[in-house]
Design a protein that fits this description.
Phosphorylase Kinase, domain 1, 5 domains, alpha+beta, about 775 residues, single chain
């Protein structure tokens, strides 16, 4: 197969409608997933419309957990779409290698966020299932395959009337009926995937699609295994039959998961160290006990009401007093009626029959009560005989003895031992060993020989597999430790079978530590020292070798943002970028005071200040090579890892949580008093014929605490410059390519007009280029 502009590497997946290939987009050298529609379907307008619709819909959705589309086209008889290549596989592949409950919640949260974005834009996916949830290399979940998605107004049926859209195992009740659906149908399907990730199977199974659909309509919501009971409430609201009883939006699902993972919710998670059979028995026993106690309370209440209504007189004997309630009387009372004797007799007869009927009901309820008590006693006896129950030692001896006798009556213990197979090592038949009886004084050797008897070999029971203690010694001492890939709750010295274990250590205010360890043939002690979580907005200095201070740094939190802008071809296409970890960036541009320490320490020439002043003014007339040499010296002098910011980090920090053209808003006219630029800022440092830099801190900081990220001095970044963002990494790392002759400059300067100091504006320059309006700021790693 040949499609211009792409080099096809291999086939990834194939379905009835299309085939997906791994390909290289030659124009930018990027790996893409190339989805090619089957040529046999070109004549079917329904499938052609779906294929085109997928590209149109995804092109309007911009979310980090929704697949991105790069190109759509047609070559000869081949329709194709180029989209993100998601190398992490699907949920089914993740389940094969094992998912922890934390991963299940994270995936559910991310897909719920993607659905919330799609629904907000007016689109329903209608085919949420594990095959359509894929993963990037950073393990983030991505929703794909919008081939059957539609707008809310038209999302009831497929093009062919009477044919319902969706996959039977994951369809909502309203989808199975063919009724109009909205985003809550996707929420239901997400609930099915949630259940499958926890248990390894779908909630409703049958041989025929119709039978599966009926179960979605009528069968009760399944119960999760005991170790996942903390998640039952979320599952119930995801799989509610009535859409009005479900989560109404994806953000509601996220809020429920966040509440569950909070301090109050985590303590409710159930874990057990028992084997699976015992877990099932305990679960059944709990369910039986709860049901029985509920029925018992109801029977006692009814029996008590019945006893309270009994009356006795010498003339009538024992009878039941009818309870008559007068609720409301309207209109005039009628005069006394004749034949009162006949009416009274009829009332007495009716009361007599009613009393007999209630008596029978009392007997029936009494028998039911006796049966329920018997079942409770039997279950209690079996449980007491099988396991060690809490508080068992406080039970009176007669109660324990009676319970054990009852258990033996229900499940008698065999008196005859079962014959055991005899194992031999070298001889295939059972050896006969003659051993003489001990001789007495009057016993002859012949008698002794006659007293010889065969000895039956005893089989040695198989030893239990060895276990080895695991002891985690965290810092802080009371940090929480969990083993994520087994249900057993961790405690110091927990005995474990040999194997690999996923250990998570967490404490409020510290970064969570997650690692794999190997338990082989000896006890394992694992020291874990947690790092304090960086506090966003906090400022600090690192001390230089000579005791002086380095640049003032401010901590920027991890997060996501949309990089670039549709307003500038050099900043296109917009990219959804994730900054995975907090980092610290210099609060101001590096000043002459900062840079001159380095220049004197390394005998480098001092850069020219253009006679505007040094000290607290941003350093200018420095090349990218000069900036790189400074950060290397700073790293060596402080013992910390300093570097130039990546382009993504710079824009993320400059935007400070906004998506507007400037960090203060959309209007450049509002720049007065906020930035130093040539035209539009009304700056005191610029005039009609000249302009110069302002001392750092002369203008307000953005929400992250950074000053002059717009105007004043433009700033070098790490990245190789390209006049587009097609190749820009989406994990916050810099773009580094071969033959990198230019590096990227961001922020604009005092010589630019206000339109050129917008947050997305970028340009490139050679690494040895110096200019009077060009400086830099630095980043230091926190980990």
């Amino acid at each position: 197969m040949h499609i211009p502009g792409y080099r096809i590497i291999r086939k990834i997946n194939q379905g009835g409608m299309s085939t997906v290939y791994l390909a290289i987009q030659l124009s930018v050298g990027r790996e893409v997933a190339l989805k090619v529609m089957s040529p046999a379907l070109n004549g079917d307008p329904v499938f052609s419309e779906r294929f085109q619709r997928e590209a149109n819909i995804v092109g309007q959705l911009s979310h980090p957990n929704i697949v991105s589309i790069y190109d759509i086209g047609r070559y000869k008889n081949l329709n194709y779409i180029a989209m993100d290549y998601l190398a992490g596989g699907s949920i089914h592949e993740k389940m094969a290698s094992g998912l922890s409950t934390q991963e299940v919640l994270r995936i559910t949260r991310e897909i719920a966020g993607a659905l919330d974005h799609a629904h907000e834009k007016g689109y329903i996916h209608r085919d949420i299932k594990p095959e359509n949830i894929l993963f990037r290399e950073d393990n983030s979940a991505v929703l794909s395959d919008f081939g059957v998605a539609k707008t809310v107004s038209s999302a009831s049926r497929m093009t062919n009337a009477g044919t319902v859209v969706g996959t039977p195992h994951y369809m909502s009740p309203e989808q199975t009926r063919g009724k109009p659906v909205d985003g809550r149908a996707d929420i239901y399907s997400l609930g099915v995937v949630f259940y499958e990730m926890l248990t390894g199977q779908v909630p409703y199974q049958a041989d025929e699609a119709v039978a599966i659909a009926i179960k979605h309509l009528t069968a009760p919501i399944p119960k999760l295994p005991p170790q996942y009971q903390a998640y039952q409430k979320i599952l119930n609201q995801l799989l509610a039959k009535d859409p009005d009883n479900r989560f109404q939006r994806g953000r509601d699902v996220i809020a429920a998961i966040d509440a569950l993972e909070g301090p109050a919710g985590l303590g409710q998670t159930y874990f057990t160290t028992a084997d699976s059979t015992r877990v099932q028995l305990l679960s059944l026993f709990r369910a039986l006990l709860a049901t029985t106690l509920g029925a018992l309370r109801e029977q006692i209440r009814l029996a008590w009401q019945s006893l309270c209504s009994l009356r006795w007189t010498p003339r009538r004997g024992l009878y039941r007093h009818p309870q008559i309630r007068v609720t409301e009387i309207k209109g005039p009372l009628s005069p006394p009626q004749e034949h009162t004797t006949v009416i009274s007799t009829q009332v007495q007869q009716a009361a007599h029959y009613h009393s007999l009927w209630r008596g029978r009901r009392l007997v029936s309820r009494t028998l039911t009560l006796v049966i329920l008590l018997t079942v409770i006693w039997g279950a209690f006896s079996l449980a007491l005989n099988e396991w060690t129950l809490p508080g068992e030692r406080w039970l009176p001896d007669p109660v324990q003895s009676l319970a054990r006798r009852t258990a033996h009556l229900i499940a008698p213990t065999p008196t005859e031992p079962r014959p055991q197979p005899v194992r031999t090592t070298e001889i295939p038949t059972t050896p006969l060993v003659l051993r003489p009886e001990p001789e007495t004084e009057n016993q002859s050797s012949t008698e002794a020989l006659m007293g010889m008897r065969p000895e039956t070999p005893v089989e040695t029971p198989t030893a239990a597999p060895p276990r080895y203690e695991l002891r985690v010694t965290p810092e802080p001492e009371n940090a929480r430790v969990r083993i994520l890939n087994i249900p057993d709750r961790y405690y110091p010295g927990i005995p474990l079978l040999p194997g690999r274990y996923h250990i998570e250590t967490s404490y409020a205010g510290y970064d969570t530590d997650t690692r794999w360890i190997e338990v082989e043939d000896e006890a394992v002690t694992l020291p874990v020292s947690l790092r304090k979580t960086p506090v966003a907005g906090a400022t600090f200095y690192n001390e230089l070798r000579d005791g002086d201070r380095g640049p003032e740094m401010v901590i920027v939190p991890a997060g996501r943002f949309t990089m670039g802008s549709k307003l500038d071809s050099r900043s296109m296409p917009e990219r959804n970028v994730r900054i995975p970890r907090a980092f610290a960036i210099s609060r101001f541009e590096i000043t002459f005071a900062d840079y001159d320490k380095f220049a004197r320490a390394t005998d480098r020439p001092l850069p020219d200040d253009e006679r505007w002043g040094r000290d607290n003014r941003p350093v200018i007339n420095v090349s990218w090579n000069d900036a790189l040499a400074y950060v290397n010296w700073l790293s060596e002098s402080t013992g910390k890892r300093y570097r130039l910011p990546s382009e993504a980090e710079w824009e993320y920090a400059a935007r400070a949580g906004t998506q507007t053209t400037f960090w203060w808003g959309e209007a450049g006219a509002d720049a007065d008093g906020l930035a130093n630029c040539r035209r539009g800022c009304n700056s005191e440092y610029t005039g009609l014929f000249s302009s110069k830099s302002a001392p750092v801190g002369s203008y307000p900081a953005n929400a992250f605490g950074l000053h002059s990220v717009a105007g004043n001095a433009a700033e070098w970044t790490q990245d190789c410059y390209r006049n587009h963002l097609l190749e820009m990494p989406q994990n916050g790392t810099p773009l580094i390519t071969e033959n990198c002759t230019e590096r990227t400059i961001r922020g604009g300067s005092f010589e630019d007009s206000v339109g050129n100091i917008a947050t997305h504006v970028r340009r490139g320059a050679p690494t040895d280029y110096r200019e009077s309006n060009l400086g830099f700021r630095v980043v230091v790693e926190l980990y």
